[in-house]
Amino acid sequence: MLQPTSPERGNEYLNALAAALESGRMVRLRRLLSSLHPAEVAHLLESLPPSTRLLAWRLVGTEHQGVVLSYVGDEVRSDLMDNIAVEDLASLTENLDPDDLANILRELPEAAIEQILHTMDAQNRRRLETVLSYPEDTAGGLMNTDTITVRADVTLDVVHRYLRLLGTLPDTTDSLFVVDREDKYQGILRLTTLLTRKWELTVTEVMSHGVESIPASLPTVEVAQRFEKRDLISAPVVDEEGKLLGRITIDDVVDVIRDEADRSLMNMAGLAEDEDTFAPVLISLRQRSLWLGINLMTAFLAAWVIGLFEATIQKQVALAVLMPIVASMGGIAGSQTLTLIIRATALGYLNQSNTRWLLGKELALGALNGLLWAVVIGVVSAIWFKGIGLGILIGAAIIINLIFAALSGVVIPIFLRRIGADPALAGGVLLTTITDVVGFMAFLGFATLYLV
Amino acid sequence: MLQPTSPERGNEYLNALAAALESGRMVRLRRLLSSLHPAEVAHLLESLPPSTRLLAWRLVGTEHQGVVLSYVGDEVRSDLMDNIAVEDLASLTENLDPDDLANILRELPEAAIEQILHTMDAQNRRRLETVLSYPEDTAGGLMNTDTITVRADVTLDVVHRYLRLLGTLPDTTDSLFVVDREDKYQGILRLTTLLTRKWELTVTEVMSHGVESIPASLPTVEVAQRFEKRDLISAPVVDEEGKLLGRITIDDVVDVIRDEADRSLMNMAGLAEDEDTFAPVLISLRQRSLWLGINLMTAFLAAWVIGLFEATIQKQVALAVLMPIVASMGGIAGSQTLTLIIRATALGYLNQSNTRWLLGKELALGALNGLLWAVVIGVVSAIWFKGIGLGILIGAAIIINLIFAALSGVVIPIFLRRIGADPALAGGVLLTTITDVVGFMAFLGFATLYLV
């Protein structure tokens, strides 16, 4: 099950699998599945519609199901796990790393977790309980407990002999961790150092203090930032007293980065970050219709604003024709600012002094863009409806709306973050509500005052 | 310059730096800067407005400027490099890895590259030229040439002695590469294997064939997918004949993943993927106003559609009040489908058979959501404007628009990708054009036929 396949070959396989699934050739299918890497099986499962997904899942050998589960996304995983009996889960998850296992267990009811913990040996149970005691989105929940530790006062010769005694090292081990008698983290001993320095030297003489320990309570997003900035492969996780609890490796950090990026993209469209593309219609309907309902309220608010000016529109229907332009330009310009600020906040660019500068810049941009497009839109409108007054007032409305759009684009995400809400999720709705209301109000209001 | 600082301390430093910059205390500032990690200096530079950015850049010791340059984003880098003389660049880039150096050189005119290549020794020049000969977005452009190679027929004992002779290994070395006499890639020898197995064994006996070589021409996005799926730390890059050219390490892949995610998010708002948040107003104006201009054309198209029904609106102004609701619901629903499909394509989920299933699902969702909200909107409209006919026809328009939105959300990104365009960039504009036009056309068209 573990030999490599190139992505091209992988994709061919996926197509072959899909074909075999459709035609129901189960023997061929089982053979195909067992020749794939677990990550590829996971990918296949994620790209199958509900009915065939379950069929394929049942054909995955039970000895591989655990590893495959550790590779699929959260939503697909809980979909698959609904079809496994708790007593089977225990055997199925036997060979997983504590962090992968913890992820899977978090989905289960308390009683089921107890049952699985009971089947484990004392050491593995203790390790798993440590990971489970921290929230999923902290360093403690992300870490693995398979650290190899050494003492600072031994020679490299001793370390070499110790490693040969162990026989194997956990995946992605790039360093050993140096701890004192009380298990407190002291520094790392890189494998590259161990291989290139003289064996008479002691660990103290060659260990590196360059990798800082990560508190178990640090949010995973900050863990990822630290890994990215320092080009780390692994880093030690410690408790409040500085005792080594485990290590975080780059492969888990990559998942955090991918999830975080997905979250912004999906949330902006009101989708769940881990939405199962192939979820059954009725499951998707709940999430999607909720989002449409929220947006409908803002649409009704905009309609109500327009309704205030019914009499004006009656007198000059050109206003009805042109008003969506004012609202739409505000929405587009505001979204640009909003996206920029959401990204700047995520990357940790903003502080008090540069936020003020940035607000100034965005307001200037709004005003300049407003002026530029006010002229274009004003001229076109004046010619289209043969009225210079109409052209001037739509231009004025555009300038006002683009300035408000810039202001909202900066203020809304900062405000949302301060109250603990996700700017990517709520920012767009709030912003377009403001640009719609301001746009319609300015345009139709000016028209009522000056035109009709 | 290289001792670690925690993010918290780092941020304090950034604030202290910002304050020192504002008050002009240059001595203090220089001291602060030299105590930071190059990644933190890069981060600081990226979060400074243009004038202070240049000031801070000049205070970075010239011996560190090269490393700092390798950490900043493309746009900020070219901004900073405009202020360095070519003859200074040569000394400044002395200690960089070939891949970082290549990234920087790609920004320079041919003559300047020649000049810098001339100052390098033969080996480094050859390495750099190899990297430069591949496009930036391929494995060859991403790779580093600092591979440590061994032969398959030697014993581990020989390898150990060779490494101690070398004295140091490049950063993020987790494996040595096994090559034959013609430099053809044979497999990897993990450092963990080297440390745990008996020294009498030969490399052949313990090397791993589990890491496939990456062709130098493979796009970086696919390289990233392969690293993610296989939890790789490093992988060998080969030419068409299978000769080892270099290696790609996970830290560079993390940058690819981050850039790729950024690209989708930024492109959806019509922003450059690497847009400098603190670029001068006039630089940002060009990009932003272009995007507004494109959107304005679609807004005018929608206005033109409304204009076709001026007479109808004149007779019943309620239509003008309600029509933005029809368009907006279509836009929101369509964006959800579009985002989902863009993500599914990026993750490689789609093939012919499941695309058809997905289209069916999205159409069903569109129809169901259409039905649901048609009832809500229809009832509210009928009550608001005291007309059952109006309620029925806005409901019908909503259903039609939401079905068209689902169709466009699936078809547009697939079509754009087939013609080689970026769905994240052009998808949203095309989609809202369709939902605007269909929404207004259906609603006002029905009204013209049946209501007035």
TrEMBL record, chains A, B:
Q: State the GO CC annotations.
A: plasma membrane
Return the InterPro entries for the record: CBS_dom, CBS_dom_sf, Mg_transptr_MgtE_intracell_dom, MgtE_N_sf, MgtE_transporter, SLC41_membr_dom, SLC41_membr_dom_sf
**Membrane topology summary:** Multi-pass membrane protein
Please give the Gene Ontology molecular function terms for this protein. magnesium ion transmembrane transporter activity; metal ion binding
Keyword Cell membrane among UniProt keywords: yes
* Membrane-spanning residues: 290-309, 321-342, 363-385, 391-416, 428-451
Its localization reads: Cell membrane; Membrane
What Pfam family is a match for this entry?
A: MgtE_N
> Which segments does the entry list as coiled coil?
none
SMART domains for this protein: CBS, MgtE_N
The record's annotation in CDD domains points to: CBS_pair_Mg_transporter (cd04606)
Q: Which domain of life is it from?
A: Bacteria
Alphabetized UniProt keyword annotations:
CBS domain, Cell membrane, Magnesium, Membrane, Metal-binding, Transmembrane, Transmembrane helix, Transport
Residue ranges of domain CBS in the record: 143-205, 207-263
* Subunit note: Homodimer.
PANTHER family (UniProt xref): MAGNESIUM TRANSPORTER MGTE (PTHR43773:SF1)
Per the record, the similarity remark reads: Belongs to the SLC41A transporter family.
**General function of this protein:** Acts as a magnesium transporter.
* Protein name, as recorded: Magnesium transporter MgtE
Q: Which organism is it from?
A: Nitrosococcus oceani C-27
